[in-house]
Every structure is written in C-alpha cells, then in structure tokens.
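Re-run requested by the PI after the first attempt was lost when the workstation crashed. Everything re-entered from the original request form. Ligand of interest: MIG.
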Amino acid sequence: MRIRLRTIAVLVLAAATTSPVGAEWRTVGAMTAEQPAGNTITFRSDRAVVTLTVLAPDLIRVHMVPGTTPGPDDSYAVVKTDWPTAAVEFGGDGATRTIRTSELEIRAQLVPFRLAFYDRSGRLISKDADDLGMGWDGARVRAWKWMPSEEHYFGLGEKAGLLDKRGRSYVMWNTDVFGWDESTDPLYQDVPFFIGLRDGRAYGIFFDNTWRSSFDMGARSPDHYSFGAEGGDLDYYFFYGPGPKKVLGRFTELVGRTPLPPRWSMGYHQSRYSYYPESRVRFIADNFRQRHIPCDAIFLDIHYMDGYRVFTWDKSRFPDPARMISDLRRQGFRIVTIIDPGIKLDPNYWVYRQGLAGDYFVRKPDGKVYTGKVWPGESAFPDFTRDRVRDWWGSLYKGLLNDGVAGIWNDMNEPAVFNVPSKTMDLDAVFYDRGLHSPHAKIHNVYGMLMSEATEEGLLRLRPNERPLVITRDTYAGGQRYAAVWTGDNSSTWDHLRISLPELLGMGLSGLTLAGADIGGFALSPSPELYTRWLEAGIFYPYCRTHTEYGSRNQEPWSYGNRLESINRRSIELRYRLLPYLYNAFRESADTGLPVMRALLLEYPDDPSAVGQNEEFLFGDDLLVAPVVKDGEDEWNVYLPRGDWYDFRNDHRVAGPANMTVEAPLDRVPIFVRAGSVIPTQQVVQYVDEAPINPVTFEVYPLARSGRQFGRDYYEDDGISFDYQRGSYLREHLEVSETDRGITISASAREGSYEPPARSLLFKIHAQRRVPARVEVDNGTLDRSTLEALQKASKGWTYDENANVVSVKLPDEGKAFTARIGFNTH
Ligand code: MIG
C-alpha cells in the first residue's frame, strides 16, 4: 500500500519542478536509538526510520524511509550480500551513538539526527550538512552533506564535461540524446556513485535508487552538496579509502565487476550505420586484409533486419547470413548484430505473437499493452524486470547464434520512444518489478541494464563455454556485470574527441571498465586529421570501435589517403602489440574493479596536478597517454607525475613530477612508460587468433637504480572459454632486480594448467646507455647472436646499439629461471 500511494505522489510530482528550492522538506527529526541487532542499529522518530548497517570495516549502509517500517531490500545493483561479519563496537550516550569498526567511527547525533564519519585517528571524513540531514517531500527523498572547500568529486557514470564534478549538478535519467554536447545532462548511462577526494584521501557514496535522481555537487550552495530522488528510499552506501582504489574496489565488490572479456573484444572493431548489403560487408572485410590493417569484428546495424523486426534478416540484403558469416570467420572476422527492445506490432511476426501469448510486454495502468513508436513503427516493449521475460528474450538469440553471430549490440534501451516529448515510455507504464508492480518511473534507469542482462544470460545459455560480448547503450550501477558500453551518439568534432577522455575516465571511476566512444565520431564526418588523432587516442579506449551515422562519408582507417592510412595502421598495430598487456589489465579489473583506462587520481590522489588532469590517463598500470585533441598541433603539453618515465618512442628518460612540451606531429601520440615496469607485448597479428603469441615479449624498463626491484604478474589463458575458472590459465611472476653491474630477471614457475603452444620468451631490456657484456641463465652462459639470427633461434641474446636495447630469448618452458644481464662496468 505504501508503495502504491507513493507511486501516485511521484506521478503528480513528475510535472512539478525537481528543484529542492521551494520544496517542503520534512526531516527525520529527533531520533531515538534501538539496541543494535548484529551489525545493524535502527533509529526511529514518529515519522521516519533509519537503519545503519556495517557491511565491512570500511562500508556502511544507511537506509532511511519515511514511515515506520524499512523498505524492501530490492536493489537491482547490489550483488554481494554475504559479507563476513565485521567487528563492531556500539557505544555512546544520551545525545549520540557511536559505531566503531577497525577503520571508521560513525557518530550519530540524535537531536536533530545527523551522521558523521571519522577515521580511527579522529579525522572527520564526511558528515551531514549542519542545517539539513535527511529529508523527504511527498515521495521525494534527499540527503545533504557538508562540502569542504578543498573536496572534489569524481564518477557519476557517463557525464560529459570535466572529470571533477564539483560546482555543478547532475541528473540521473537514461536518455537518448543524439547530438549531445558538453553541457548535455543526463546522457545515456547513469551510475549514482561518486568518489569524494580531499587532501589525498577518498571516500565514496553510492545512492542506490533507480528513480530519477539528482546530485547537486555544490551548484546551489558553496558549503554543501546533496543527492536525492523522485521516489524510492534514501538508501546509500558509504565507502572509506583512504585511497580511491580501495573505494572503487569495494564499490565494485558490492555491485559486481566486468568479467574477463573474450580476447577478440579487445581487438579493433569496425562499425557504421549500416554496412549492407552483404557485398559491402565483404568489401570492408577484404579491404582490412588486403591493406593489412588488423581488425576483429564488423558490426551490422539495423538495416540487416527485415523491416527493423528484431531477430530477423532482410533476405534481399543478406540472402545467406550463415554462409557470409562463416566466410568472414575464415578471414578472421566476427560479426556483431544490433538488437533493439521495440517489437513491431505485426500480428504475423513471431516475436510479437510470442510476446503477447506469454504476457511479456509492459502494460499501461489500464491493462492494455503499452505501445510506442521506434524504428519498426508502433512497437511493444518486453518487461525485463520479469525473470521469464529475460529467459524468453535470451532464448531469441538462438537463430542469430546459429547463423554464427559472435556478439550482440543492444541499442535504444533507455528505452527510447520517438515523437513523444519525454523521449521515452509513459512514466506510469506498469512493470512487474518482482511483484511490486512498479511504474516505469522506477524502472526506467535499469531498463537497459536488465535488457543487457537478458542478452548476456541468453548467450551464456546458448554457448555455455564461450565468453559473450554484449554492448549496451544504457545501464545502471553494476551494469558492467553484463555488458560493455559506448557513449552513444557523439559527433565528429575535436571537442568530442576531447570530451570522450574525461567521460570515459569518469565511467571507469564508476565501475564501467569495458567502455568506448565511437572513434571518429558518430554524427557528421571527421576531417582526415581528426580521424587520425581520434584513432591514436581510441586505441587506448578499453573498448575500441569506429562507428558513424547513416549517410556520413566513409569512415574506415583507409578512407583518408595513403599517408594517413599508414599512420592509422600503425595506431591499430600498436593496440595489437599491446594485447597481452591489455589482457592483463582486464584480468586485474575483473579481480579488483580498477579500470583499464585510469584517471591519474587513482594512482596519485595526493598530487593536485595529477588529480586535475582531464585528458591524460594511465592505460593499465604502467603506460601514461596524453592524446592530442586539438587540430594542427605538433607539440603537446604533458604532465608527468612523480617517478621516472621513459618516452615510449625514443626511451628518453624524464624525472617527474614535470610539466613538459613534447613533439607530437600527426603521426605521434605522447606515450610514457613508468620506469620500473615490465610490459608484456606480442607480435602484430591481423586478428587476435590469427597466430598464437610468439614470442611473448616483455619490454623491461629499468629504474636504473642500484638495489631496487620491481616486477609484475603475467596472466594468460585461451582467451575465449571459461576454462580459466577451472584452473586452465597460466600465471607467472617476473621480478627484476638491479645493481650497478647488471640486471637480474627472475621468473617464477607457471601456476595453472594452461599450456600454451611451444614458443619463446623475449626480454627486451631498455638499457639506458649501459652496454651488456654477458648474459647468464641459471648460471650457464647464453650465446650472443645477431638480431637476424635471434629471430629464428630459440635461445640467445643480442644488443641493439642504436636502440640501446638488450634482447634475451629463451624457450618458454614454464619453469622458474633466473637470467642475469651483466653490463660493462668501465
Ligand atoms: O536512432 O541503429 O546510438 O549507434 O547506429 C538511432 C542506428 C538508432 C542509435 C545508436 C547508433 C546506431 C543507431 N541508433
């Protein structure tokens, strides 16, 4: 009943202003505390109840509902519920309750009710605003927090504009925003989670509410920020660092992480709206191979379908899809097809008939099927909140998979509806919502995530031992469990190239690891130089795809003349050379939630210059990339944080922190490598499984400081199946130690049962003006050879004087070994 009444209030309010100014906020008032039960303490007043639960020493859930009973636990985001019980001490007096963990002390002031979070040394991390704490107004709920002048905010999912969200307000409402720009908000995907950072210390807040919500990060007031929603509970999670990596790690533990993607999803992908008919698709594929430009996937947009009916083919454009796809597969391409949620109202269309018969569609309050206009014309929409609808939807992919389709691209799942001012379904359309029968207003922000869940799970049932690739335009917190995302319909402008960087970095800080922007831009057509610069940046997007709108000019890597074609080829080749490194970064992300494309603040939270970088980023642990995002530049300013760095192009070494100008003509993107790193790379291939990795090449960038050590884990598996979950992977640890006289590389024995094909290991030591005299492996001397001879040999070493690189080659036997490179010491 409570839900019904509040629902009606929301629908009335939806028309009213969303501004808290002028609202009649009621606050929770004076609270009394109950006896704690387990790790939960409940506070009550005559008009509200607040429960505070310790989930982990650094993770607290705060849940406020107006009324007398806590709301149902019905999160669409949270997946982790089995937290080991943390040790908690409850204490306090008549005015305040304290809740102490090994990392936090929470002080709950009872009159008026206010929460404050301290670390165990008594330092205040975050607290409710003094004049307002938690409140509601009709169905709306809101929390206000103190905003110290030196605090900055990061995350909030897909947002254009600066990485630092301070001083602006943001709305969470998934929206189809063709032609969006830097000031457009909201965009497609919404993640109501942010990291607060002050003096190098971080905390996080995840407001788990799927209704239209808003975050005012100081736009309205210089000393507090607030977040709230148009309905639902005030239910949020507080995370403590002190490092931002720890906050993000916990958040992604709570809502789930990006599972290890298939290796082919990390190659280069080519798309446009739309490649058809079949002859054009084959032409594109042939061009990639003839021109030796690596590519793993080609996308089919809505024109492959019969009149935009999902799960069908237009047989005049694609007479024999299975044959086409298997031919392309032999050339090393995989096909990804688009699927929208709208089902054409066509009584002769099997999907529509099944949907009606099964009662799978969203309905209006009067019980009739809701319909809206999208690509196929008047359409019905599956209710993905229902388990059996997701099962049904997942099973529909059977035909496409039988035809050989490798990946699925889910679009229009805001859900977008044409020709209505709201651009979406009526707010009062009814969803099953686990028996709560909730309005669209509550489900809207999770519609895309649930569609991608249905897709992912369907693909998993149809091909149980193959990692699927699903790409979705819309999602919510935790959506990374199911699908990759892209940033929707950007434009072919220099601004959009620049915007894509903080946008993707912010998404990475929100858990969305596997993300990319349309390379070259979707709307309009890029200039040749813009496309080249965009690709130079785009090969560092975690998900790397060119895409463009209907009717735009050709937008393939070879579309801009020979000179740019060879620059573009080299950009894509670099991505393929770095695949082992990228694969390891995705492995790390699956384990820890750390993004692949990382804002510098994750690594350097206490360095204001690093925190302030919007366009520079770390790619994995050890590469720093500063893409050129302006026209006509041949120099670029780069900020290098503390530590030593190697210019990737010429091994020139720079000590950070430093601001510097580097040469950046059109064929060069500034890339720096952390001194003290080992970068796993491989030979260039035209698609990921063209040939096994051989040799596995470890580029070693020494610290060049005596007595120092560094290393890395190297992970590998078959790249496609789930066998790694049953032990079929390999992991080894490489440790490099340095003295004045030489460098020692120690490799651990392989862990895991994955056996790669016979191959070599190649260590390339960037020697920094030191000249090698001898190399020993496990105390036996290794023969010196020439560069050419070493390419064919399975063993030996050589020295490239010009590059100042020592190469050491060994058969990969999976056993522990030690290699010593002795330098000439005179
Ligand atoms: O209304 O399927 O963002 O990538 O090419 C446009 C056609 C629908 C929007 C997607 C875009 C895709 C296009 N789609």
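Saved to the shared folder this time. Residues 273, 301-302, 338, 411-412, 473, 488-489, 547 surround MIG (CB under 6 Å).
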